[in-house]
Design brief:
Blueprint: H1 3-9, H2 38-64, H3 69-101
Helix pairs in contact: 2-3
C-alpha cells in the first residue's frame, strides 16, 4: 500500500487531523485464554460434586427413602447437575481460575 496515500488520508500533512492508528501485535492480546489443566478441572469438579451429592441426598432422604435407588438417582442426578452447572462450578472456577491455568 502506498504510505503517502494513507498518511495523506489521515492528515499527516495537516497537524490538526488525527494520525493513523497504531498497529498492535495480536500475539500480545490479553484476550487469549490460557489452557486449563484437565486434571485440575477434574479435581475441582470432584471437590464440588461430592459435597453436593451428599447434601442433596441427606436433604431429600426423608421424602425419597421409600423409592428404589434408580428412582432416587433419577431425582438427585439432574438436581446435582443443575447445581454444578449454574451455581457451583462458575464460583469454583472464578475462585480457582489462576490455579487451573498454572
Amino acid at each position: 500500500m502506498n504510505e503517502g496515500i494513507v498518511s495523506h488520508a489521515y492528515g499527516a500533512d495537516e497537524p490538526e487531523l488525527p494520525s493513523p492508528p497504531a498497529v498492535t501485535d495480536i500475539r500480545l492480546s490479553p484476550t487469549v485464554p490460557a489452557p486449563v489443566r484437565l486434571w485440575k478441572l477434574w479435581l475441582l469438579t470432584v471437590c464440588g460434586i461430592y459435597p453436593t451429592i451428599v447434601l442433596l441426598g441427606l436433604a431429600t432422604n426423608p421424602v425419597l427413602e421409600n423409592l428404589y435407588l434408580p428412582v432416587r438417582l433419577a431425582v438427585l442426578v439432574p438436581a446435582t447437575a443443575a447445581a454444578m452447572v449454574w451455581q457451583i462450578m462458575p464460583r469454583l472456577q472464578r475462585r480457582c481460575g489462576a490455579w487451573l491455568t498454572r
